[in-house]
Amino acid sequence: MYREIYLTDRRFNMTSRAKKYVAVLLVFVCVCMIFSPQTAYAAEDSSQHETVKVGFFAMDGYHVMDEEGNRSGYGYDFLRLMARYWDVDYEYVGYDKSWDDMQQMLEDGEIDMVTSARKTPDREEKFDFSRPIGTNYGMLTVRSDNSTIVDGNYSTYNGMRVALLNGNTRNEEFADFADNKGFTYVPSYFDTTAEMKEALQSEKVDAIVTSSLLSSHKSENAAAYSDSKLTDVHTKTVLYLQ
What we know:
About 45% of the residues lie in helices and about 25% in strands.
């Protein structure tokens, strides 16, 4: 009997120890379930959220900001739409900068991306590009009281003074367009489209080369366009994020 009691005691001791081990194991598992997933989810959420510096240069119809800092335009609307599917905060940089400045800032790492970019072999060597995000057309605009330049009569284009945006690939496209149509022009280069329009209104140039995005915002800039007219549309271009 003694021995039987001994074995009974031993079983009891083993069972007690097992229960202790199981209890400890359960506590450990619970701790892992309570804390580890939250930490993982928090880390995951933290890694997914991003702050992106976007080149937001002044461009009528595309990047517009009023005196109170309210933004609008096709490019701004596109960024907001993209943010619906991307956990991101945008930091808008460079409204007072030119397109040339944007390219240099992107190369130097001062901004993370720009929109309205056109693919060129040189740019593709330096930057990545998204899928196409839109299209636009080159436009030639003159003052409404200019009767010497006749739409489609390219001999009347000869020798006209044309305002172009510094660093814009549209400049090369317009040069090809002029060569194809057989007319010559005298280029003048500006840092912003606002400067180009001012030069047109003050008759320092005869025409300005811009994009169809500018005309899409025309209703909000009626004063700037009241004395101008569209003379020619040329060269369809695909736009990308860069």
